[in-house]
Write a structure and sequence with these properties.
Helix content: 25-40%
Oligomer: single chain
Shape: flat
Number of strands: 5
Number of helices: 4
Strand content: 15-25%
Order of helices and strands: EHEEEEHHH
Length: 103
């Protein structure tokens, strides 16, 4: 059963992790510079660019409401494989093209 309130990422965690580092607590972080401030902040990827239920559709059934979020999750889980294929084969296979187009 899915929770009623869910933090949903505007930018995929899979994508963000490539630009960050793993901290001493074994969590993924990204360094963020906010315009107008004098320093960067190190923010956990799991909380960066999140908003509660931002991608929920206005439907009564929770499964239907989270359709976009769940489909995005499936695409995101394939992203590391797409990158590995690109590095190894130096080209995109048709499935990888489809994943990138949807991503």
């Amino acid at each position: 059963m899915e929770p009623e309130f869910q933090n949903q990422h505007k930018l995929s965690q899979i994508y963000l992790k490539q630009f960050g580092y793993i901290g001493e607590d074994n969590e993924h972080y990204v360094s963020v510079y906010k315009v107008g401030e004098n320093k960067t902040q190190n923010i956990k990827v799991k909380s960066f660019t999140t908003e509660v239920n931002i991608f929920d559709l206005p439907l009564p059934d929770m499964k239907d409401r989270r359709l976009f979020e769940n489909l995005s999750s499936q695409l995101e889980s394939r992203y590391p494989k797409v990158i590995a294929n690109l590095q190894n084969q130096k080209k995109l296979i048709p499935l990888d093209k489809d994943v990138l187009n949807n991503f």
